[in-house]
Hints:
With 176 residues, this protein is of the alpha/beta class. The protein is built from 4 helices and 5 strands.
Amino acid sequence: MRICVTSTAGDLDAQIDPIFGKCPHFVIVDPDTMEFDILSNEDISALGGACLQLVQVIIDNSVDLVITGNVGPNAIKTLSSAGIEIVTGASGTVRNAVEMYKSGRFQKTDGTSVSEQGKISGMGPGTGGGRGIAIPQIKDRKGIQIINEQIGILEEELDELQNRLKNYRETKVCDE
């Protein structure tokens, strides 16, 4: 199996990019070995229709599953017709997303999370606060469990970032 995760950078510890068609990189991971390949999104600044080219690149790389924040109707239709499964609403790092999928904590998407006009749907007015946060819809108890697990992962990442910042500040003070 090969899993494609939209990402902000080219490694397993990169953050998931919330928008399929506008992500700078695709990290394609073998979930058994965690070996990965990087594909750069050459069409990142292209307007409508570019997603279909991205989908073809994903198909050409024998991907079985895409994990992302949001995906539009054209891309989801083309991915689905190629037999590629999709998970939306993902956040955190590429590594965490793959681990969550392996442990069965993601639900496959059955529809688009972006409208025909390219606006993210089903999230209400401004829930992301401009930070690109994809908030999964709660459909059942498993959805609540998934969100709680994502909160735990984000809290761990926040703690790590705060520790790194603290260490940096202490080092800077010592250097001055």
